[in-house]
Specification:
This protein is mainly alpha-helical. It has nine helices and no strands. It has one domain (about 5-225). Helix content is about 70%, strand content about 0%.
């Protein structure tokens, strides 16, 4: 167990990034629901960028905190407080639900792009040692948000991908309900399978590659070095 000040500092920064990233994901759901005329998220105080309005004490803070600080050797898992929706318009209910569902992962993509933009503006580069800490923070944030994006598209409840497939008619209500009963166990097993990790990384790479292609070479090199540890 590493309890050095450096490890504790970066662990705390990663936890802060995770809380902010999960909060933005849930805000995306609430914001688009509000735009689509659903009053429930605003009534419950969820149309806000305050990450603690979307944090689950166990899933956003306790479990991820233990995993980040103590590194027990299995995959990181975390979740936010789900945004409740009422979908009041029957005529647009199906499309509303799809757009609301996809808004969460979309927000993680937006945050990844924003962090990359900050890196370009601040000229973070492996050739500039004074920018290494900022660059490392930005890279952690980019990787975390792309990870959240890809993970949430997995078609297993309660992840967003499964709800999209249900609304598109790929999953029947009976199958969706049955899958929901065993989803937590399935996910715990999946995230600790080496092949699953490689699959997720392949998806992440497809998203990160075009982003890195347009940033300066120095930022690309710093990104690779942080990624390799």
């Amino acid at each position: 167990m590493d309890l050095s000040p450096e490890h504790l500092r970066w662990s705390l920064l990663q936890l802060i990034l995770l809380v902010a990233s999960i909060g933005l994901h849930e805000f995306g759901h609430a914001w688009v629901a509000d735009l689509r005329g659903d009053p429930l998220p605003r009534l419950q105080g969820r149309v806000t960028l305050n990450p603690f309005a979307h944090a689950d004490p166990i899933g956003t803070l306790l479990i991820p905190g233990i995993m980040i600080f103590f590194n027990p050797g299995f995959g990181l898992i975390g979740w936010g407080k789900p945004v409740q929706i009422s979908l009041p318009n029957p005529a647009t209910r199906r499309m509303d639900d799809i757009l609301i569902t996809l808004a969460g992962p979309a927000m993680n993509l937006v945050l990844c792009l924003v962090l990359a933009f900050i890196g370009v503006v601040m000229d973070v580069s492996w050739a500039h040692p004074e920018t290494h800490n900022l660059g490392k923070f930005l890279v952690y944030g980019m990787l975390m948000n792309v990870g959240l994006l890809c993970f949430n598209l997995i078609p297993i409840p309660p992840l967003d991908g499964s709800r999209v497939l249900y609304r598109l008619g790929v999953y029947s209500l009976e199958f969706f309900t049955m899958l929901s009963r065993y989803s937590f166990i399935i996910l715990i097993i999946l995230i600790n399978l080496p092949g699953f990790g490689r699959m997720i990384w392949t998806l992440e790479s497809l998203i990160l590659t075009p982003i890195l292609d347009v940033v300066p070479v120095g930022f690309q090199e710093l990104f690779v070095r942080v990624l390799r540890g």
